[in-house]
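C-type cytochrome
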Amino acid sequence: MRKIIPVYVRVPVLFALVFMAMEYFIDSGEKPAFIEYPMVSVFLFVFLFTQIAIEIVISAMDKITYAILTEEQKKQLAETEAMGITETAWYKKLKGFFTKSKPIEEEDTIILDHDYDGIKELDNVLPPWWVYLFYITIIFSVIYLVRFHIYGGYTQEEEFQKEMAEAKIAVEEYKKTAKDLVSAETVTLLTESGDLASGKEIFNTNCAACHRADGGGGIGPNLTDAYWILGGGIKNVFTTIMEGGRDGKGMVAWNGTLKPSEIQQVSSYVLSMQGTNPPDAKAAEGEIWQDETEAPTTEEGAENADDKDATEETAADTEEELQVAQN
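Structure:
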């Protein structure tokens, strides 16, 4: 019935530990878990109520048990409760695990014959925890020897290479969901309406002053035609916004203001304005940009067709000359 930790310490500490554990393991974003999820608050309230109820029940049982004790038992209980913590059985057992030294009164039984200028040496045994740890290392070494040197387990280099490969895969998987790790090499064109709406909002806030809200161009170039000063396509547009335009007269770099995911959104929105032909648009600047992965333009196709026809005509003339020569 003796309580080492008082109830006014035990109840708050246990409740605080449970509260911190729930806050740690429950993902509630920026808000505390008990605010984001009402059921957490209900659980904490029930837990605290149960704690108090248990303490009340234990206290009542202690009183009832004490009331039925004999006078001799009450006297023994009083002596036990008056005993210091260092005199309890569990403390002596715990102390024996860490040290087996003899009391000062019994040191004469373990004094060795060595005497150095009056300094005598005691033959104390090693601490039990040290001995147990030594035995554990012996068992571990035997298992290690059999596992890695007899049955040929993996080497440290193989383990390192395996962990590096797993880490690389984990990083690549993380990059797929971490939008702000996007770069010019990994950026892709966004087509979802939500992304384009976010890109439009960013454009109107930061870009419309120079390019107009409709992209027709003002101080900056027209973004709705097929002409580009630093190249079109998502990768080029992303790089231009991220790193800035031409030195001295181009657009400033936005990598210090916008996140990579926001630059991807506004780049995708800029490309979505292609061909909108707003009124009073600025004259074209730069050159027509053609994606290498796309099919050739009509002019290029016509040139290729002319080359093909010329080649066929040359081949026909050559064949005709050969026939004349044979005749």
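The longest strand covers residues 111-116.
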